Amino acid sequence: MSKVKLQQLLTDELSLKQPAFLLEKLGTKLSGSVISETFAGKTAKERQKMVWDALDAELGESATLEVGTLLLYAPEEWDIPLTRSAKAKAS
User: Fold this and answer.
1) Which residues contact 81 (CB under 8 A, 6 or more apart)?
2) Is 78 helix (H, G, I), strand (E, B) or coil?
3) What DSSP string runs through 1-49?
4) Looking at the predicted structure, is the pLDDT value of residue 88 above 50?
5) What distance lies between CA 16 and its chain's CA centroid?
6) Are 54 and 16 in contact (CB under 8 A)?
7) Architecture of domain 3-90
8) How far is CA 50 from the centre of its chain?
9) Where are the domains of the chain?
10) CA–CA distance, 34 with 23 (Å, rounded to integer)
11) Residues 24-33: tens digit of each pLDDT
């Protein structure tokens, strides 16, 4: 599966609002982050269910062979500085 195909599939099937994709091919699977306003107000479990239900519906059993880990964020979560959590642990 290509990055473009995965982006189009998720955008269309989930009606993603202003999505941003940071995907890379790791071996035979595409993995990465998807940022969209559509994920705002949803739990991590709800987000994952949305995405994997769409992938399963479109790709069937090959979904887990073609897509790896996807991290799903609302835009306001993506802006969290990653160094903050490291400093908090050091204190």
Assistant:
1) none
2) helix
3) --HHHHHHHHHHHHT-SS-EEEEEEETTEEEEEEE-GGGTT--HHHHHH
4) no
5) 11
6) no
7) 2-Layer Sandwich (3.30)
8) 10
9) 3-90
10) 8
11) 999 999 999 9
